[in-house]
Amino acid sequence: MLTGKQKRFLRSEAHHLKPIFQVGKDGVNENMIKQISEALEKRELLKVSILQNCMEDKDVVANQLSEGTEAEIVQIIGNNIVLYKESKENKQLQLP
User: Boundaries of each CRM domain copy (predicted)?
Assistant: First the structure.
């Protein structure tokens, strides 16, 4: 689990990021989870945007992504979810 201080740090790091994945009307699927896992391994921190035609609640989507990728939800803001997972090989972020 992340501490409040770590989440604040990650939110500031994520502020300038653009969402690289979008969840549409089909919701979350295995392929998407696999791709997001690979992206998290490379980047550690990323944003996922939820499109307006997504039928599921953004909290449900965030939890599905978090469980599927074993990542932490840093924040849900508007229709964006910020996810963090410590990388095994490409460690870039040094948490406070």
Answer: 1-96
